[in-house]
Amino acid sequence: EAAAAKMACCSCLCCRCCCREGETRTPEELTILGETRDEDDEILPRKDYESLDYDCCINEPYVEVLEGMDNKKAKKYEAVKWLLVFAIGISTGLVGLLVDFFVRLFSQLKFSLVGKSVEECDDNVCLAVSLLQLLAFNMTFVFIASVLVLIEPVAAGSGIPEIKSYLNGVKIPGIVRLRTFVCKVIGVLFAVAGGLFVGKEGPMIHSGAIVGAGLPQFQSITFKKIRFHFPYFRSDRDKRDFVSAGAAAGVAAAFGAPIGGTLFSLEEGSSFWNQALTWKVLFCSMSATFTLNFFRSGINYNKWGSFQLPGLLNFGEFKCTDGDKNCHLWTAVDLAFFVLMGIAGGLLGALFNCINKRLAKCRMRNIHPKAKGIRVLESLFVSMVTTVVIFVASMTLGKCRDLSTPTSNTTLSLVECHAYLLPCTSFALLIFTFSFYTPQAVLT
């Protein structure tokens, strides 16, 4: 009788949903995979998603507030907003400093022990022990990061698509919560220290956005007993502006580019903008870059105020030696090579996106419907493959040497032989890692 009822249910178009009790994939994933069967399967607004009200509701109470706000109160309101923007920039810079400090600390601890073991090795058997030590470090770090994602699933990935959604009016549950912030920051530092081909730049944007959303509220849903009487900036419109500033500060802290952070928030993130917000966002980005640069220069080089490290991602400094008048950083002939490099970069980017999309769809079909523990095992598998490939490549594809003093006739190189194979290995591992850890990029 149960089977007959089930068949009758499946024959009814109105009750077809009951035939999918075992389906655990979201409607968004089914649409990406192209497995929607009819119009009933289209993506509808989810019950846990809400829309943010960015429009000013002109009513009698609002008009009374505007009429009762004199010039002095308006200036006070604007001054408080500038102070909060400055605080968001400083806080985001300190978050970047925290992540960079612990990533450097864990990496130094790992490589000091493994490097000492490699130096003491005389045969391949001893190198296997060094590999096991490196695997133990990396897989432990990645396991911690994976568990944090299970605690707060919204903290997975870079968080950039989710912040774009928030800035365009979609309120995703938990996207700017304090618990998400803690899991995001701790998870990214362990993921990077674990040797995965992931960066701190994307999570810094999400972290900055959470700081921008939470700091002006002076309260937290997680710590409900901690409350301050701060009646300002309670509307979705004000909160959106601070999230825009926090996201821009995250970009500025990651790349050391305040103008780039402002343009990112303006062009890529927000759909709602005004001229006054531009200067506040730029000021917030400058504050984040200044804070991170000031403390990193002092901690790493013991030169406080030298501002030698503007961002978390640094390509070094290109300049001629003092007194060398024949030195030129580039010539007109080099422009042709720059164009070729741009073409090659575009083609590799297209290849990367194509492979990433296919692997992400494969994971949606085969991994997402399974238990969450399978995803932890998947992350450990990725960590193991990455560690083994990098270790073997380091031992076989090149020979490292100390950097010599630069002269006009000296070419600095860290790898003497088979250097052309290392970029290919890095690119393959980059595709491998991103396809497993950033499937939400398919949605953007």
UniProtKB/TrEMBL annotation:
The keyword Electron transport does not apply. Its main location: membrane. One of its GO terms (molecular function) is voltage-gated chloride channel activity. The keyword ATP-binding does not apply. Keywords: CBS domain, Membrane, Repeat, Transmembrane, Transmembrane helix. It is found in: Membrane. Gene3D superfamilies: Clc chloride channel. It is a multi-pass membrane protein. GO terms for cellular component: lysosomal membrane. InterPro entries: Cl-channel/antiporter (IPR051280), Cl-channel_core (IPR014743), Cl_channel-6 (IPR002248), ClC (IPR001807). The chain crosses the membrane at residues 82-107, 127-151, 181-198, 204-221, 242-264, 335-355, 376-398, 418-437. PANTHER family: CHLORIDE CHANNEL PROTEIN CLC FAMILY MEMBER, H(+)_CL(-) EXCHANGE TRANSPORTER 6. This is Uncharacterized protein. It comes from Denticeps clupeoides. The lineage of its organism: Eukaryota, Metazoa, Chordata, Craniata, Vertebrata. The gene is CLCN6.
